[in-house]
């Protein structure tokens, strides 16, 4: 059984830009390497007992079977001492230079060994996100041309998506072979595409089918005709499609869904799109994902800038948690809620595409580690609700 988890995370994105020359290491840019002990103390001070936390993969994984565990040992050891349960985030948007990028056909096989060695070294860790936001990572790296391989074509996108999903599936299987009670919280962006006019309905619906690809791969759901045509045209083979149907591991999984004000999109008849803001909101979108997969859910990421008066983030926090409560009232088994991240971020308003050094005031604390109003509000919310929400068995499949 999983008690309801109030969580935050240490922002650990580490993609490359500039054709691989610049590493956007958010743990460095946001000061975590210098202040990791203070960060963990703040997590405890806010009453948060679950932390999405990833080791710096590009610093830790030096080559096949070669690791530098020094920082990971210190960090995970301190979390264990403080009684903060980590959701171990093994790959967050970037890989070591020696792997290259997500076009590397060996990535999934190599990642199995890393996941196995990590689980062997830290046998007490129960919760994992092997690969974070596969959909977003593939889209930004291989379709929009922003990160890592910086490709902009259909075939590269499908290749990245299948490699990320295969790495996630095989890592889960490797971990659960060592840790039969492991639980996998797959953090993925929950998207929705709105037709801006009747002429845009077909394209919006096509995109609404394709947004599910990473999770359909991950959970072994047979592809719909639109999806199947899309991936086969992108170079996948029928055997590669069958691999995902045959290797799913749903019984150990929690469907983590991320929602921001940027997750909804208006689609134009000619195929262009632009942000729709919070149009139908997380509740309706999350229910669609819940019905599709029939798994326990967790709201694994949300945030908002504090605004000029410091209250916009507080209002967003309360609204998102109210939505989680409403989902539970409607029968959706939700096991947790996350404000992401603990500290402010850097350059996420431009998706890390350029190294500008602009601070995004979205954290529970600022970069000087002063608690923001949203941090106080989250602390108070946790104090009021912690222990008063029923636990959920992640092995129980509630059904669609």
Automatic annotation (TrEMBL):
<dbReference type="InterPro" id="IPR051923">
    <property type="entry name" value="Glycosyl_Hydrolase_39"/>
</dbReference>
<dbReference type="Pfam" id="PF00232">
    <property type="entry name" value="Glyco_hydro_1"/>
</dbReference>
<dbReference type="InterPro" id="IPR017853">
    <property type="entry name" value="GH"/>
</dbReference>
<dbReference type="InterPro" id="IPR001360">
    <property type="entry name" value="Glyco_hydro_1"/>
</dbReference>
<protein>
    <submittedName>
        <fullName>Family 1 glycosylhydrolase</fullName>
    </submittedName>
</protein>
């Amino acid at each position: 059984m999983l008690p309801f988890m109030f969580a935050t995370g240490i922002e650990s994105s580490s993609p490359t830009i500039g054709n691989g020359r610049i590493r956007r290491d958010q743990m460095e840019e946001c000061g975590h390497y210098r202040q990791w002990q203070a960060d963990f103390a703040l997590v405890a001070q806010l009453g948060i007992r679950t932390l999405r936390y990833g080791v710096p993969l590009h610093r830790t994984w030096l080559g096949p079977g070669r690791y530098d565990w020094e920082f990971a040992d210190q960090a995970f050891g301190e979390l264990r001492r403080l009684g903060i349960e980590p959701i171990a985030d093994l790959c967050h948007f970037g890989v070591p230079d020696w792997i290259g990028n997500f076009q590397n056909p060996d990535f999934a096989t190599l990642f199995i060994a890393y996941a196995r060695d990590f689980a062997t070294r830290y046998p007490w860790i129960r919760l994992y996100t092997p690969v974070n936001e596969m959909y977003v990572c593939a889209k930004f790296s291989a379709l929009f041309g922003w990160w890592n391989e910086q490709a902009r074509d259909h075939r590269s996108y499908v290749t990245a998506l299948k490699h990320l999903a295969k790495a996630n599936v095989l890592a889960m299987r490797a971990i659960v072979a060592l840790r039969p009670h492991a639980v996998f919280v797959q953090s993925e962006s929950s998207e929705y595409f709105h037709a801006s006019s009747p002429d845009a309905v077909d394209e919006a619906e096509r995109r609404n089918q394709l947004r599910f690809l990473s999770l359909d791969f991950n959970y072994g759901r047979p592809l719909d005709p639109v999806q199947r045509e899309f991936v086969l045209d992108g170079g996948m083979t029928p055997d590669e499609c069958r691999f995902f149907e045959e290797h799913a591991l749903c019984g150990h999984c929690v469907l983590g869904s991320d929602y921001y004000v940027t997750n909804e999109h208006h689609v134009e008849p000619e195929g262009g799109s632009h942000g729709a803001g919070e149009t139908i909101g997380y509740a309706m979108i999350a229910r669609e994902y819940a019905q599709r997969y029939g798994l326990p859910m967790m709201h694994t990421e949300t945030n908002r800038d504090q605004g000029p008066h410091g209250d916009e983030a507080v209002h967003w926090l309360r609204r998102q948690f109210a939505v989680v409560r409403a989902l539970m009232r409607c029968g959706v088994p939700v096991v947790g809620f996350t404000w992401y991240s603990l500290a402010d971020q850097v350059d996420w308003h431009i998706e890390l595409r350029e190294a500008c050094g602009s601070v995004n005031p979205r954290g529970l604390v600022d970069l000087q580690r002063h608690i923001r109003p949203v941090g106080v509000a989250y602390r108070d919310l946790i104090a009021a609700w912690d222990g008063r929400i029923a636990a959920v068995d992640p092995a129980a499949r509630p059904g669609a």
